[in-house]
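In the laboratory, one determines a bound structure by crystallizing the protein with its ligand and collecting diffraction data. In a computational setting the workflow is compressed into a single prediction: the sequence and the ligand go in, and a structural description comes out. We illustrate the idea with adenosine monophosphate.
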Amino acid sequence: MKVLVAVKRVVDYKVQIRVKSDNSGVETQNVKMSVNPPDENAIEEAVKLKEQGLANEIISVSIGDDKSQDVLRTSMAMGIDRSILVKSQNTLEPLAVAKTLKIIIDKEKPDLVLMGKQAIDDDSNQTGQILSALLNWPQGCFISNLKIENNKVFISREIDEGIENLETSLPAVLTCDLRLNTPRFASLPNIMKAKKKPLETIDIDTLGIDTSSKIKTLKVIEPPKRKAGIMVNDVKELVQKLKYEAKVI
Amino acid sequence: MSVLVVAEHDNKNLKSSTLNTISAAEKLSEDIHLLILGNKIEDLAKSSKSIQLVKKVIICDHEKLENQIPELSSPIISNLAENYSHILAPSSTFGKNLLPRVSAQLDVTQISDIIGIESQDTFIRPIYAGNAISYVQTNQKINLMTIRPTSFEKCEEAGGDAAVENIPFIDSEVKTTFVSREVSKSDRPELGNARVVVSGGRGLENSDNFKLLYDLADKLNAAVGASRAAVDSGYIGNEYQVGQTGKMVAPELYIAVGISGAIQHLAGMKESKVIVAINKDLEAPIFNIADYGLSSDLFQAIPEIIKELDLLNQIES
Ligand SMILES: Cc1cc2nc3c(=O)[nH]c(=O)nc-3n(C[C@H](O)[C@H](O)[C@H](O)COP(=O)(O)OP(=O)(O)OC[C@H]3O[C@@H](n4cnc5c(N)ncnc54)[C@H](O)[C@@H]3O)c2cc1C
Ligand SMILES: Nc1ncnc2c1ncn2[C@@H]1O[C@H](COP(=O)(O)O)[C@@H](O)[C@H]1O
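The predicted complex, in structure-token form:
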């Protein structure tokens, strides 16, 4: 089985976001960038499938500018065999990302695509679902458990009501929740080894697809700030305040 | 033009998120159609008829739609699309799972998790876990959008008399089969639309201690919530998680107990009207957004609060 993992480079989840003063977007210069967190779970799951002997080749793909090489190197340090960077100067919308991934998938012919359930920058939560529809492959979203046996795929997916268990088959597109596994840290020797692993670069313009933006960002602003609250001295005061000041109990 | 709202339901009742989404649709058109895809939904269609804002209820009733497999339901929606300027679904796991497939089928970009509607083509949505708010404009043949339920009021369920139209089921070849659903049963209000939410974090230490929180919730007729750390540690199920990768809540009163206040958690609750934080660490960031902070050991504070509430009740009765 061949597995393809989609990896996005995003502002690290610990960074305090700053809105640009001209309200055109969020400051991404000189801030720490990382692998989108649930994509790390997707990488980890692919590496586990290889360790279990279920996968024989695992590859990662990122769409972004040259700097996205670093998240692909990270994925290879975690155990991915080789990577593909589809170079694009513009930030793509989920539909365009999915179309781009589809072209790579048509060429690479993986049996399984693993991705994150949501990118923590745009918070779209769409790309896996779109890709599944474009490929006409089964979709399994927000998964927290995966078992593959004789081409059968058993997943548990996190839904608002609890857990849903589904059975499907390969090829499939699965999007991962952070609870799927615990991503490993790349060891120093593995980081060194990853530098020698193959990283292919493809220019997005050579793919012949429409990746133009369908949505225009008019402005990006800071969210309204909450007004400062107070510290209460004890439980009695808290309950009194809630009852007679805030009138919420 | 008309607006289509895709109903979230359990084949018996509409989820309240559907009512919030209908309110959002009202900002776009007076001609709102409600699409219900499900199995044995005649009763549901009848009760939905009376929603005041809805002009037409469209139902597709088929046993294969029982478990709402998106591969089956999305083509039915795409097939109706040409009649509408906008198609809306709640940004719950139901809507998130489904609507992007329609976007692929119609070749348009969907806009996720809308918190405000400025005009027919301009919408407001949070990005970066709500640390920035984006105003976006689109000029597509049809607008697909998921709606954050807590940002729109619930619409009236009575007073209307919509027409009901049955549409035929379109079958698609689907490789996925439903196995089971593990749903926790509780008499407490639903987390997404409770008036009061009591949430616990890693500070609770284990699942047994969560009972303390349940007691407090029951006194306040509150829903229970949790931080990701509490869910990850197995104290409570994933359906209770509040935050960027969990549920969004905006109750009148949110009580955060033993939760530090990571931005990913705040993303899911900072729109609450009144926020209370109980934490033994005075430096915990949750205090920066709390209206009332209590720096105390929760194992001491919670039983005391329950006692105080009992006392209040005695005085009142
Ligand atoms: C991509 C991504 C998405 C995420 N999504 C979410 C999300 O949706 N929701 C979410 O909640 N988190 C989310 N997280 C995790 C988030 O970053 C934090 O790790 C998490 O919210 C911490 O949970 P906590 O506050 O319960 O635990 P901690 O940060 O460990 O805080 C525990 C708190 O309890 C206090 N405490 C301990 N004992 C007591 C006591 N006896 N009495 C009183 N106080 C006590 C401590 O002082 C501390 O402040 C996400 C993280 C990532 C990377
Ligand atoms: N530019 C990108 N390059 C590679 N993968 C991406 C990209 N954008 C999104 N993805 C994948 O799609 C998932 C969901 O993203 P989104 O739909 O934007 O929330 C991410 O977790 C990634 O796995």
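The first helix of chain A runs from residue 37 to 51. Keep in mind that any predicted model is a hypothesis to be tested, not a measurement.
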